Amino acid sequence: MFLKKYWIFILAIIYILLPVDLIPDVIPFFGGMDDSTMVILGLVKQYLDAKKKKNGSNGV
């Protein structure tokens, strides 16, 4: 149940920890931007899922 609920967030954390990135971290500013984007997308997905569950609706 835990993995089913938090799978996108777990993948975002794994993406940050892996040395392979879309944009290498050695490039100033832009290197960390793809990592930050993954975390933000994961948090937004979790928020939307929680909101959908709270409202009891099937769509956003």
Element layout with pairings:
Layout: H1 2-17, H2 30-55
Helix pairs in contact: 1-2
What key attributes describe this structure?
60 residues, mainly alpha
Q: What does this molecule look like?
A:
Keywords: Membrane, Transmembrane, Transmembrane helix. This is DUF1232 domain-containing protein. The chain crosses the membrane at residues 6-23. By secondary structure, the protein is mainly α. It has a domain at 1-18 and 32-52. It has two helices and no strands. The chain has helices spanning 2-17, 30-55. Helix 1 runs antiparallel to helix 2. The radius of gyration is 14 Å and the shape is elongated. It starts with a helix and ends in a 5-residue tail after the last helix. The relative contact order is 0.15. The mean pLDDT is 78.
How much of the residues is beta strand, in percent? under 5%
- Which radius of gyration do the C-alpha atoms yield? 14 Å
Biggest sheet record: none
Shape: elongated
In N-to-C order, the SSE pattern is HH
Poorly predicted sequence stretches spanning 5 or more consecutive residues = none
The beta-strand count equals 0
What is the terminal separation in angstroms?
A: 22 Å
Please identify the structural class as seen in this structure: mainly alpha
Average pLDDT, all residues: 78
Q: State the share of residues found in helices, binned by percent.
A: over 70%
The number of helical segments is: 2
Assembly classification:
single chain
Membrane topology: Multi-pass membrane protein
GO cellular component, one term: endomembrane system
Domain DUF1232: 6-40
Keywords: Membrane, Transmembrane, Transmembrane helix
